[in-house]
Structures are given as C-alpha cells and as structure tokens.
Amino acid sequence: MSIYFCIDLKTFYASVECVERNLNPFTTNLVVADPERGRGTICLAISPKMKMLGVRNRCRIFEIPPNINYIVAPPRMSKYIEYSKNIYKIYLKYFSKEDIHVYSIDEAFMDVTKYLKLYGKTPIMLAQTIINDIYSTYGLTATAGVGTNLYLSKIALDICAKHNVTNIGYLDEETYKKELWHHKPLTDFWQIGKGIEKRLNRMRIKDMYDIANCDPKRLYKEFGVNAEYLIDHSFGKESCTISDIKSYKPKSNSVSNSQILFEDYSFEKAKLVLKEMIELGSLNLIENNLVTNSIYLYIGYSNDIIKSTGGFHKISVYTNVYSELIKEFLYLFEKTTNKNTPIRRIGISFNNVTSQDDIQLNLFVDQEKLEKEKKLENTISIIKHKMGKNSILRGMNLEDGATTKIRNELIGGHKGA
Q1: How confident is the model at residue 399, as a pLDDT?
Q2: CA distance 95 to 104
Q3: CB pairs under 8 A, 24+ apart, for 84-90?
Q4: CA-CA distance, 353 to 292, in Å (whole number)?
Q5: CA–CA separation, 417 vs 411, rounded Å?
Q6: Deepest of 112, 169, 299, 389, by most Cβ within 10 A of its Cβ?
C-alpha cells in the first residue's frame, strides 16, 4: 500500500512575519498586507489568532472589525521564498527529490512509501517527526495529511488535520467513505469550486455520497470527461502518482503574463502598459530560445462595467521578436477593445510555444533585420541579468502610467522586501 504526505505551513506569510518579530502567531494579531494600497487592499495572510477572532482569511483591511488591534506587516516575498527553500531542505533530509512534488510556496506532496521501513516509523510518527523538525528549526507550525494516494493526503490535510490536536490527519479509502461521504460543503474538497458545487446542487447532489451513488451518465452529460475525476474522488480513488507528475510533458506550451492596474486606465494609457508587457514577454521567449505563432489578449474593465474583450489571434509565422509581436498585439487591441471604457486588467499569452531550433526560416522575412533585433534584445537581457531589471529601460517605461519599473521591483506582484 502506498503512503503519501501533503504538508502545509500554517498561515505561512503571517507566521514568518511573527517569527521574524519573535512573536507567537497563535497569540498575536497580525495581517500581511501592503498599507500603501489603501484600506481596500487584500490581506495576503492573517495570523491564527486573527482567525480565532472570526476574521476571514484573504479579507480586505476595511473588513477587519475596528475593535481588533493588529500589526500590519508589508509583504516580503523574497523572505518567504527564502523560508520556503529552507523548509524544502528539511524535506530533503528525509526524502529524495524524486519523491517530492512542490505544490506551492507553502505546500508539498511526498511519496513516503519506501521510507517507512527505512526509518522504522509508522506514517503518523514520520509525519510528526518532520513537523517537529520544521518547528524546532524555524519556529513555523506545519500540518500534514497522510493518505494512501495523493488525493486522500490532500483531503486529510484540508479537512481532517485542522480538527486534530496533532495537526495530522489520516485517510484511506474506507475511512474516507466512513468519515467524509456526508461532509459538507462540497467546496471543502480539492478541485471542487463554487461553480462546480452549484452545478452539482442543481442535480440534487449535496455531498460525496451523492456523487458516488449518482448515475455516471448524468455526471458525464453535465461535466464531460471531468466527471471521471469526480466519480473517482467520490470513492477516494486517485491513480496519479508523483512519478506521473514528474514525467508529465504538456502537448502544447504557453507563456502568459497579466496584471491588475492600480487605477482606471484610459485606452491610450492601457496601450502603453500592453507594450511594456509585450516587451517583457518577447525577452522571456528569446532568453528561453522559444517562438510563438499564436497570441491571446485579455482586457478587463473597471467594476466590470462591460464584459471583458480580447481573444486569440494567429500569426502567419513563428516569432519572438518584439517588433513583430507588438504589431500583432496592437492590431488585436485596436480591433477588440472598447475605447471609451476605463480599463483595470490586462492579460497576454503567447501560445503554441516551441523551440526556435525546430522552426524553418521563412524566406519572405528579412532575416538579417530580425537577427540584428534579436542580438539587441539578447544584449538587453544580459544587462538586466547582471545589473538588475531596471538597469536598462526603454523610453516608454518612464512615461506617465508605465508600470514596468515598479513591477520589476515586485515578486509575485508584491514587494520583495
């Protein structure tokens, strides 16, 4: 029988900030949020003590009751990444990297099957050992889900561990049916969001037991091939393994980038930001020796006044050159964007990405001109890597409304330190 762990660092960002201040996360009121973004900014994390007081995770500052005194810690993404790397080193003390799958900055899966005999421990004992190591080394509290497959380890973490004084939950297929078949709401289960829950509710399906006992034809009619995952998960089954994840290669690749603007932008100001995003995307493609022949644009409007616009656009040749890409994106932007409605969100994507070495030269394109531009952009990339992202900028990056200079100082959309 296989055994998997899913280990999560409890309220990670907030706990790191408390540890850095020599404070106890379970007795300290602290939120991680950027005060410069105003009272409407979202809290990236809140301490466990705040949760005990009924404050909702990922709330906005103005939603916190005025009678609660708390510390506001500006996000320091580089610090959180440093902690995450150090926690990963703890995992490597016990397991090979081939048996670890990092799911997010604060969560990881491990296939521990062959290590139980090696360490002479039960699954719960080994999970407790790792949790204790994390706490004694870095002062962070971790929770663990132990399961007989990846799915059950995740559910044991999300639903069972939080109700256990040891911070460890365990599930196999039988205990899953016994303890969670009638658990509500369905959104507590991995990969079931509010939209899927609503669709299931319309089918008079309220819990996992209902899914397990529903006619599969009804589920396939509603969800298509995705019904297979719902049915398997309703019985606590999961065929995917960490080795499957490690060996997976997608049929097609894409490179994307998006941002939420700090204020409403006019059509012309948004065009400036779009140009900046295309430049960064082009540099990314060139650095990785990739080219694309399909692009996607997303434009979201302020307060969702009107429906988002944009769409896909096929390019006649594979390319990664800024001058070529900007021409295609601006065509799509001009064609699809509402010019009189304030813009708040912009997203771009380069699709059908492939290695430049696999593409034949186009006889109808001035290759000498393109090579000169690529050499220039390669030089820009080298300078940025050696001297910093803001060491060399285009003139447009200094215009009013430009965001590249500010965003170059962010990690994951937040301040690095």
Answers
A1: 67
A2: 18
A3: 84/9, 84/12, 86/137, 86/138, 87/9, 87/134, 87/138, 87/140, 90/130, 90/133, 90/134, 90/137
A4: 5
A5: 9
A6: 169
For 183, the token pair is 């658990």
For 12-75, CATH number out of 3.30.1050, 3.40.50, 3.40.1170, 3.55.50 equals 3.40.1170
DSSP H stretches of helix in 156-266? 173-180, 194-202, 208-212, 216-223, 227-234, 242-247
Could you give the residue range(s) of every CATH 1.10.150.20 domain in the chain?
A: 181-244
Is the CATH number 3.30.450.20 carried by domain 253-415? no
- In the chain, ranges of CATH 3.30.1490.100 domains: 253-415
CA distance 373 to 376: 5
User: Does 189 score more than 60 pLDDT?
Assistant: yes
Encode pLDDT of 108-158 as tens digits: 999 999 999 999 999 999 999 999 999 999 999 999 999 999 999 999 999
**What percentage of the chain exceeds 70 in pLDDT?**
87
The answer to whether the CB of 344 falls within 8 A of the CB of 261 is yes
Per-residue model confidence as pLDDT tens digits over 75-88:
998 899 999 999 99
Nearest CA to 185 out of 174, 193, 177 is that of: 193
What are the b/e assignments for 405-415, b being 16+ CB within 10 Å?
A: eebeeeeeebe
Per-residue pLDDT tens digits for 319-331: 888 888 999 999 9
Positions of CATH 3.40.1170 in the chain: 12-75
Look up residue 197 and give its two tokens. 């829950």
DSSP lists the bridge partners of residue 256 as 349
Beta-sheet strands, E only, within 80-231: 100-104, 107-111, 142-147, 168-171
Residue type for position 105 = I
Cα separation, 47 vs 29, in Å, equals 6
Instruction: State how far the alpha carbon of 380 is from the alpha carbons of 225, 320, 368, 390, 393, in Å.
Output: 46, 15, 19, 11, 9
Classified as helix, coil or strand, 7 is strand
The helix (H) or strand (E) run that includes residue 376 is helix 367-387
| pTM for this model (two decimals) | 0.74
Interior/surface letters 271-293, b for 16+ CB within 10 angstroms, e for the rest:
bbbbbbbbbbbbbbbbeeebbbb
d(C-alpha 370, C-alpha 150), whole Å: 48
